[in-house]
Amino acid sequence: xxxxxxxxxxxxxxxxxxxxxxxxxxxxxxxxxxxxxxxxxxxxxxxxxxxxxxxxxxxxxxxxxxxxxxxxxxxxxxxxxxxxxxxxxxxxxxxxxx
Length: 98
What we know:
By secondary structure, this protein is mainly alpha-helical.
């Protein structure tokens, strides 16, 4: 679902909007590098030039919010989507997008 929303093809939501919402979540320090937060809050276009997201468990740097969720779904580390931090992010996004 996150990949679908990031593409912005069927709604007024795109990756810039999702990034901003993620940066607004009070748990942001666990999955966004501090150096990028202001850029995300200012609707910055980070699609090609940086990796603002990080895995809360293994600190892997990721370029997209969807990449963070895919990483959590994979066996790359022990992080899961139901973990406290990403679970709270998911609920926050759902509340803002519904």
